[in-house]
Fold this protein.
Amino acid sequence: MLSPVELASITAPLPEAKTLPPRAYTSAEAFNRELEVIFYKEWVCVAREDQIPNPGDYRSVEIVQQPLIVVRKKDHSVHAMSSICPHRSMQVVADHGNTTNFSCPYHLWKFGLDGALISAPHMDNVENFPPPNCGLKSVKVEIWEGFIFVNLDPDAKPLQERLGKLSEIVSGYRMADLVVAASTEFDCPWNWKILVENFMEAYHHLGPHRESIQPTHHAKDSYVSGSVLDGWSVLHMPEVADKKDDKSGSLPMIEGITEQQQSEILASLIMPTFAWLNSPSVAFWYELKPLAFNEMKLVIHTLLPAAMAQSADGGDIGALVQSTIEQIHLEDIAVNEGPWKGLNAPLTEQGPLSQLEEAIWQMNQWWVKRVHG
Ligand code: FES
Ligand SMILES: [Fe+2]
């Protein structure tokens, strides 16, 4: 898909490296390749544990054309499975709720919380029915920091064995103790990588965020840690020194965070699409849902400590914090739409990357390795 010259330019050390070529974003062919080697092979975050707290709680989610159910079983463990009926491929559920079993709306086959077939009307003349494994197909699940990840590849390596260093960096934020306090969905008619790239660099604080974030978190102070091999990056955005004492009107800090964490914001990515922000008092989960090469949905969730979210004014706090992050995203929309148009223009070529865009370089190395083997 990439020429040897393009490959060399992407994999060169950062000072000489170039961005991915436009067609990596604008072609259906590239997206189909991503489906095969990325979205149907890698760990994707689809829900929070706190979204299904009780036995029988379930959510319908989707990884690019694969509808799934994540459900809390009676033993409190989380189970994930295909939502497609093994009879004639109807989607069994598409909503969220609480149930003791799932019933397919087409011919009323019934499945347990673990996906096992419970009953199927008028199938008594069928030889050897039900055959083995005639339930909703299970997929791999892992929980990390309260986030539920699934993987469609039955042979996938465990996620957490490569997250050791990342867990150390973010453990102080105690994300497993946070809950979703507010969520907003945005239609994003552009390629998913544009949003990831925008999310993972603070260089653009100079442009769209010059009045909102740049005064307190200078673009030039940002730096990146991470591991291409392990598939994650962390962008550190330290607070400007003379702003550190002005904490009036801000929310209480998460208990036990380190001194460094008290004065920085982190934007992190577990490749390909699990993106989130940590601030001293709240976290934001950017739930990216790629749909096609030219289309995705983004759901931004505000995550608050459970005690705060459930307090009397928890709803107001959630709404207030959510409106702040929405404002920031509104500033980002123009710099997602712009490059999307630009990447579709016939004269557009690969561009260079600043040292402040190291996380994009990291993501590109990871991407090239998967797409090109
Ligand atoms: S398609 Fe589900 S019961 Fe027939
Ligand atoms: Fe931004």
Remarks:
- Residues 44-151 form a domain with the Rieske Iron-sulfur Protein fold (CATH 2.102.10.10).
